[in-house]
């Protein structure tokens, strides 16, 4: 094929793909997104006018008529998700195995998880379910629920401040979209009773596991265990490394050893934390079922709870994650944890799965 013919074929593919990837929700077209930056359609920049080759057109029509999954890609501080409009069904539109394939950054769309926007139950407005990038299903996702709220505002055409009651595996979670576009989430109460986190580590402070010792890689790590609906193991250092410099950690070596440790029967998310001041913490996370991610909302909440329990920080902190900061407050009056941070749509498209 001549270079000119090849270029025309690519252009034709792009033009056709661009017009065939508008997301739908059970047949409804999503409105164009607002906000900054505006989400992009996949390969929109390649869309130039060129005659469609019959072969490319029929190829694309065939793909669309098969099982095309429409999605919107969202991110909250770089923790990214494939958002699926599942409002018409209580059954997720993709299986855990398919989710793992879609999350693959080389062979799929690429994401830390797939989130399903589902009908509400028990008086909730909506239900959120999520599959991690390995296909496992966690109870909750903090960055994900902020993205979820922004998605609902878009598809329901809501302007200004709004809050929603979201049913999750961690109970009722209430995100509120603020005037500045950030989302503040009432993340509920932390769970500190060891067997409920769950961890097999013995309690050290009342019923909580605070600064308990966990042997990994020849080091005696000091860990505090907190559930925000999903399990977290938080460490500020070990017997040997009194102070952590989180940038120096080889997360991919050490993370899986925490995640799969026998003391965590449901596996665990692990946060490694550096205290910058009593109201400013810095963390890196190794997520259960997703590995190293740029941010973890439930993790940042658990970190502040652990820092307060260990007497290292105040109840209101900024937590720096690789993807940016989150504002976290563990309120004394109602024992709830509040998380505030950004969430935005990145692009939308469709995929045959
Ligand atoms: N990134 C999320 C947490 C996602 C679930 C986690 N990997 C688990 O298995 O518990 C967040 O922002 O909270």
Please summarize what this structure is.
With 353 residues, the chain is of the alpha+beta class. The chain contains 6 helices and 21 strands.
Description of the structure:
With 353 residues, the chain is of the alpha+beta class. It is built from 6 helices and 21 strands. It has helices at 3-20, 54-65, 96-103, 142-155, 251-259, 297-309, and strands at residues 24-25, 28-29, 40-41, 68-76, 79-85, 113-119, 126-132, 162-163, 166-168, 171-177, 183-186, 212-216, 219-227, 231-238, 269-277, 280-287, 291-293, 316-321, 324-330, 337-341, 344-352. The chain has a 19-stranded mixed beta sheet that branches. Strands 1-2 form a two-stranded antiparallel ribbon. The longest helix is centred in the first third of the chain and has 18 residues, at 3-20. The model is unreliable at 1-49 (pLDDT under 50). The site of the ligand N[C@@H](CCC[C@H](N)C(=O)O)C(=O)O has 18 residues, from helix 4 and helix 6. Keywords: Amino-acid biosynthesis, Isomerase, Lysine biosynthesis. It is found in: Plastid, Chloroplast. One of its GO terms (molecular function) is diaminopimelate epimerase activity. Its EC number is 5.1.1.7.
